[in-house]
Design goal:
Blueprint: E1 9-13, H1 18-29, E2 33-38, H2 41-53, E3 57-62, H3 68-82, E4 87-89, H4 105-133, E5 136-141, H5 154-174, E6 179-186, H6 212-223, E7 233-236
Parallel strand pairs: 1-2, 1-4, 2-3, 4-5, 5-6, 6-7
């Protein structure tokens, strides 16, 4: 039988749009109590209202996961409101595009800090509370780009490879505590991220992108496994995608 999610408390970063928003809607419909985190409050509030309108419970928190203080504050909202964090879903991400020799140094830093350091900070803030209870599930949204290399998105690819390595280190570290770690690795997904640099879609010509709901179902699948089952890695690509 699938594990019941009703009543669990979850924190989702990058929850204002795309994959994060789809995850919020899906887990909210399952009865989870959610803290929706992102840099912009308006879309987060809209997502929280959607969850609440369907009988769920959600609160929006504007936070920049590139800073540990904000990451800790976001986790603190869940603890103050509901007394625990059962599920952490670090999902926030941005991308770069273009030759390394012409890259904006500030963007290179922003991509790595958002995609990798942001995950590390979120985990660092939540993990002590999970360890104290000897339970919890950390489902990190990475990318298929964390398993391959190619020309065009150098900082994004590097950040996602780092995320994969960090997740495996984390899984090994907490395995004996009862905390589960999962890694969700989507290929091309129809989100605002893929429209920031439209020419990047030429890396996967003719591919019909996955829907964010496809990724949300994968997240729910790993969360619903019995506590003795840790699905560590789910790699999803559109059927026609080679990279």
């Amino acid at each position: 039988m699938p594990k019941k999610l009703d009543g669990l408390v979850g924190v989702i970063t990058g929850a204002g749009s795309g994959i994060g928003a789809a995850i919020a809607r899906d887990l909210g419909s399952a009865g989870m109590r959610l803290v929706l985190v992102g840099r912009r409050l308006e879309p987060l509030s809209e997502r929280a209202a959607e969850v609440e309108a369907k009988g769920g419970s959600a609160v929006a928190v504007s936070a920049d996961m590139r800073t540990y203080e904000d990451a800790d504050r976001a986790i603190g909202v869940a603890l103050e409101r509901w007394g625990k964090v059962d599920v952490l879903i670090p999902n926030a991400a941005i991308a770069d595009y273009g030759p390394i020799a012409q890259a904006d140094p500030a963007l290179l830093r922003d991509v790595v800090e958002t995609n990798l350091i942001g995950v590390m900070f979120a985990v660092r803030a939540a993990l002590p509370h999970m360890e104290a209870r000897r339970s919890g599930h950390i489902a990190i949204v990475s990318s298929a780009s964390g398993r391959v290399t190619y020309v065009g998105e150098p900082a994004y690819v590097a950040s996602k490879h780092g995320t994969v390595a960090f997740a495996e280190c984390l899984r090994q570290e907490v395995a004996a505590t009862g905390i589960r770690v999962s890694l969700i690795e989507p290929g091309l997904v129809e989100t605002p991220l893929i429209h920031v640099y439209p020419e990047a879609n030429d890396l996967v010509p003719g591919v019909i992108a996955l829907d964010p709901d496809d990724i949300a179902r994968a997240v729910r699948y790993v969360l619903e496994q019995p506590d003795n089952v840790n699905v560590f890695e789910v790699l999803l690509r559109p059927t026609g995608q080679l990279l």
